[in-house]
Design a protein that fits this description.
By secondary structure, the chain is mainly beta. Helix content is about 10%, strand content about 40%. It starts with 9 loop residues before the first strand and ends in a 6-residue tail after the last strand.
Length: about 900
């Protein structure tokens, strides 16, 4: 992190500040801040996708970008973990993306049997786990699975009644995917809080599929939903999230600039009005004191945000009075402190200058220096001492010293305690302007060429990397207020909570949008700048930055003491054979560096002492530990609620496309073992393991012989759907799902409670230890044993738990994988990006197979040259429609660009 110094242009009210700046540039607080960010530099990941929602059986294409806090190239980490979660926060799939200069490409091949629901993607590096979930990238979207069991739901919801007798009036209509009414259906309705059922009722639809229900509002909370089930066919269901949009209520929040009000100091108060739907709501009113005297007025200027000024006085309280749905409401303002400091920033009144106004009440006026810091990401832009003996200190700063983005100002006390904080978005000077040169109209099956031009803010060509997606508007409806790479890196990644219509602020960046952006800075919480963490004594990072293909670990002996000077041998057998060695250092640490990239590599590490004998030291490898399922984006509403034909058409086409293109598309999901008839159950399982255990699935000896080198871990993952390491499961038959601080092997959300090898529990390997040690032992066993070592595998299931029975050829039980001085390490395989399949329609093309693509074209690696130019081409599909073209990317030097356009596709007989 760099400390950027400059010459102060002018100081008002602090005559010796220039001399003070020269002497005190590297002040004590700034040194602590620099030390923190030197040890914990920030990384920011971003993913761009081909479209906003998907169908089961679809391919989800994405490009990843990892940058430093200053938005330049990140070379610290070269692996990005991209995870897909369902609406119960259960992991569906995890990809490990290799990064090249922070860039990565990938895809999720969505299982055609994937359940309809809201899903989240989370992306982070191992290093980012040091920073916390606020720094992860997360995005939610809906994955639909339209079948003959799917209901379309048209509904309206309205709060009616008065005071304690209010109810939510729901009117709805059910129909199938052909829009045929679900008439005279007997329904079961459940009021849901997540997975918990709170209330139940029954009713019947009318001939036209309509029903209505009233729910007492006193029992309702945001996040509740209504589960609708067909009484005779429970597979027919729909989930209706409740909308508690109450015109008689809103959340009006007041946030004094700098954090709080102080008596007798004139200050700005920002406000934000939020409706019960969580969105900004316009408001206006007046400010009165406790004597009902009007002191001023207030009015929001954008999405319920605005500000006003107030001079608070001792023994006075203040209120905002406003009209809401015809009723006068009154809301108290925050109480002013009798003593304190205030911080005001004005960067809107002058085009080239920023003013900082710091004031102190009489009790806070001291000859000891206060300190003002201004930061952008990890960089300190300003660090200066302030003398507040006179009660104030004003600074005039040139705007051009500040980089683009959010600047965080903090005033510290002489005791190094943070007093006042303020975010300000000062500059948006750097950007990339993207232009598409193409025709406005093409015929079906035409070859479409797009020339892309990228220029900077001065009109000069930009070399950059971009992702380009072309989608069919008849199947994909683009969200009206979607964010993009500009709004994410410059805004959303630095702020907590929902930033409504974030991209709007950068469309023109005129006086109105800049004023609105300043209101946002005053009213939105921020990410980072946890001064309790930053200013405390720094500890070493817990999570390493993964860079290069290497294996690191530590050797320990008795009492966990390091074991130095031990030779370790690394062996990998497969299509490529690898044999190398290394020696542990004085701290017992060892590294196998510069390893070749092997496909699905499994490594065996053995240790020997100086005499060549096997050492009894314990081997610990620094393996990746996934983050807990926190920091996920909020759920999105189901596609089938009040939807138009666009989403339904996309889902139905996607199902047909899966069947149609099986032979054309390169398979992304790998080969799974064939289903077999379940037989050969152990009759003694019910009293040896669990009374309710019943055979569920198994793998035969014949199948195992066909894949002799496949590891047990791969076999379990491929054959038993949902098998994975997880930290969420149901602890009993009738309990809610629990989230735990350690991993165990699960199938879906059900724990594998017993793992026996040759009828000996793997618990015996770690007898007396805890669940973490049991998991590590099982992981070693699963990685060590191959199919050639195993005779059969049986999976049993009870009420809630699974039970795994493995029979080996040796009959040695679970100890086979835990020989002293041996460690089997199987890293997560790297996921390599596939090429997007796009058909080519030549002049002699005669196929009559419909072209059902919803994503017409995807290119994650569009590179503009030194002239800022790039070209792509692809073929239109076979139906008249319009296409949306979207491109976004960066020059890896702090500039971002986004462009969205549209072209028309017409029948060959129509004029272009």
């Amino acid at each position: 992190m760099k400390l950027k110094s400059f010459i102060l242009f002018a100081l008002l009210g602090c005559c010796d500040a220039t001399k003070m700046w020269a002497q005190e540039t590297r002040a004590s607080v700034s040194n602590l801040v620099q030390a923190h960010y030197s040890l914990f530099p920030t990384e920011k990941a971003y993913l761009t996708f081909d479209k906003p929602y998907y169908s089961a059986g679809d391919t989800l294409w994405f490009k990843s970008l990892l940058l430093n806090a200053d938005h330049n190239i990140n070379t610290r980490s070269d692996r990005l973990y991209v995870e897909l979660f369902n609406d119960s926060s259960q992991l569906v799939e995890r990809l490990v993306l290799p990064l090249n200069n922070g860039l990565g490409f990938g895809q999720f091949a969505l299982d055609p049997k994937l359940a309809d629901g809201s899903y989240s993607i989370r992306a982070y590096t191992n290093w980012q786990q040091n920073l916390g979930a606020d720094f992860y990238f997360s995005k939610s979207f809906y994955i639909g699975n339209a079948t003959d069991k799917t209901w379309l739901l048209t509904s309206s919801q309205q709060l009616v009644g008065q005071d304690g007798k209010r109810s939510l009036d729901i009117k709805a209509r059910l129909s199938n995917v052909k829009n045929e009414a679900a008439g005279y259906r007997d329904l079961e309705l459940y009021l849901m809080n997540g997975q918990k059922r709170l209330m139940r009722t029954e009713l019947q639809t009318t001939q036209d599929g309509f029903f209505d229900i009233k729910l007492p509002a006193v029992n309702l909370n945001p996040g509740y939903s209504l589960l609708i089930l067909d009484k005779k066919d429970k597979l027919k269901k729909a989930i209706l999230p409740l909308v508690l949009k109450d015109p008689d209520n809103l959340d009006l929040q007041f946030m004094p600039e700098g954090g709080y009000l102080v008596n007798d100091i004139y200050n700005k108060i920002a406000f934000k009005a939020i409706g019960t739907d969580g969105l900004g709501q316009e408001i206006s009113g007046k400010i009165v004191n406790n004597r009902k005297e009007q002191l001023g007025t207030f009015a929001s200027t954008h999405l319920g945000m605005g500000n006003f000024f107030l001079l608070p006085k001792k023994d006075e309280t203040y209120f905002a009075v406003f009209n809401l749905n015809g009723k006068e409401k009154q809301m108290p303002l925050p109480l002013a402190k009798p003593e304190g400091t205030t911080l005001r920033i004005d960067h809107l009144n002058k085009p080239d200058s920023l003013y900082v106004f710091v004031k102190a009440s009489p009790a806070k006026r001291t000859d000891q220096a206060y300190e003002l810091l201004a930061q952008v990401g990890d960089s300190i832009i300003l660090a200066t001492k302030l003398n507040l003996q006179s009660g104030f200190s004003n600074l005039k700063l040139p705007k051009d010293i500040f980089p683009d983005g959010i600047v965080h100002f903090t005033l510290f006390s002489p005791e190094k305690q943070p007093l006042n904080e303020r975010n300000a978005f000062i500059n948006f000077k750097q950007h990339i302007k993207l232009d598409f040169e193409t025709r406005t109209s093409y015929k079906t099956k035409d070859s479409i060429a797009i020339d892309i031009t990228a220029t900077d803010e001065n009109g000069k060509p930009v070399k950059g990397t971009f992702a380009l997606a072309v989608t069919d508007d008849a199947q994909v409806q683009q969200p009206a207020k979607a964010g993009n790479i500009n709004s994410y890196y410059l805004l959303q990644s630095n702020l907590k909570g929902l930033v409504e219509d974030a991209s709007w602020y950068f469309k023109t960046f005129d006086a109105h949008s800049q004023a609105a952006l300043d209101q946002l800075m005053l009213t939105q919480g921020w990410v980072g700048y946890d001064w309790n963490e930053i200013l405390k004594k720094q500890e070493s990072p817990k999570f390493i930055a993964e860079n290069g293909n290497k294996i690191t670990g530590r050797l320990t002996g008795l009492f966990n003491k390091p074991v130095p000077d031990i030779r370790l041998t690394l062996l990998s057998l497969g299509k490529d054979v690898l044999l190398t060695d290394t020696v542990s250092n004085k701290n017992g640490d060892f590294t196998f560096d510069n390893l070749p990239l092997l496909d699905s590599a499994a490594y065996t590490i053995k240790i020997k002492n100086a005499k060549g004998k096997v050492s009894s030291a314990n081997i610990a490898v620094n393996e990746f530990v996934p983050a807990l399922p926190f920091g996920l984006a909020p759920k999105v509403n189901p596609w089938y609620i009040n939807s138009d034909s666009t989403a339904l058409k996309s889902l139905l086409n996607a199902k047909e496309k899966v069947k149609q293109n099986e032979r054309l598309m390169a398979p992304l999901t790998g080969t799974t073992l064939k289903e077999v008839e379940i037989k050969g159950a152990n009759p003694n399982i019910t009293y040896e393991v669990a009374w309710d255990a019943r055979i569920n699935q198994f793998i035969t000896e014949e199948e195992l012989k066909k894949v002799p080198r496949k590891t047990l871990l791969d076999l379990l993952t491929e054959r038993f759907k949902g098998f994975k390491a997880g930290n969420s499961w149901y602890p009993s038959c009738y309990s809610r799902m629990g989230h735990y601080s350690f991993d165990e092997y699960v199938i879906g959300a059900n724990l594998i409670l017993s793992i026996r090898i040759d009828k000996i529990s793997t618990y015996k390997v770690v007898q007396g230890a805890g669940p973490r040690e049991w998991f590590e032992a099982n992981k070693q066993i699963f990685n060590y044993l191959n199919a050639a070592d195993i005779k059969n595998i049986q999976l049993y299931k009870g009420c809630v738990f699974y039970y795994l029975e493995i029979t080996t050829r040796s009959g040695n039980g679970p100890w086979v994988a835990t020989a002293p001085g041996v460690y089997v390490y199987r890293p997560l395989p790297l996921s390599l990006g596939k090429e997007f399949y796009s058909p080519k329609y030549t002049a002699d093309h005669t196929s009559t197979v419909p072209d059902l693509r919803s994503t017409i074209y995807w290119n994650a690696n569009v590179i503009t040259d030194e002239n800022g130019k790039a070209s792509v081409s692809f073929y239109a599909a076979d139906k008249p429609t319009s296409y949306t073209i979207k491109a976004e990317g960066t020059d890896l030097l702090g500039r971002f660009g986004f462009k969205q356009s549209r072209i028309n596709i017409v029948k060959p007989t129509e004029s272009k």
